[in-house]
Amino acid sequence: MSFNPSITAVLNGSIHTVHRMIPLEIKNEEPSLLNQTYMNGDLGVLIGMTGDLACQLLIEGSEASFRLIGEKMYGWPLEGEMLSSFTGELGNMIAGNLATHLSEHEVAIDITTPTLVGGNKKVEKSREGFHVSLSIEKEHQLSLFLMVEKT
């Protein structure tokens, strides 16, 4: 993949936005190259982006991790459809804040409506991308996957 400063901006902006939006202690590992087909876990949200960079951002984790985030943000545990709805809305909030953050760094993107994913679906390696593991409150995990469209 040739160097594209928009990739760095979107990846760093995604990490920054997650830290800003989720009111819990979060530690992230260094980004790594996504070099295999990925099977997502219990629950996730997929956000498409166009503009200076054509890519998709997948935020995925266990239901327990999203439940913890929802409980911290709303004050009560979320289950079933409420948890699914919250996960989609969290993706919406992250995407909107990411677009604003990137515009402040002169990267223009448009975002698609977030899509809820789950149930061990495959994300085929038809793109190049990056993975960032996030530890939340020491015992919970989320993963960010930035999948860049090949140009």
TrEMBL record:
> Coiled coil: which residue ranges?
none
User: Which CDD domains is this protein grouped with?
Assistant: CheX (cd17906)
Biological processes annotated in GO: chemotaxis
* Origin superkingdom: Bacteria
Q: Which residues form the Chemotaxis phosphatase CheX-like domain?
A: 45-122
Keywords of the record: Chemotaxis
Q: What protein does this entry describe?
A: CheY-P phosphatase CheX
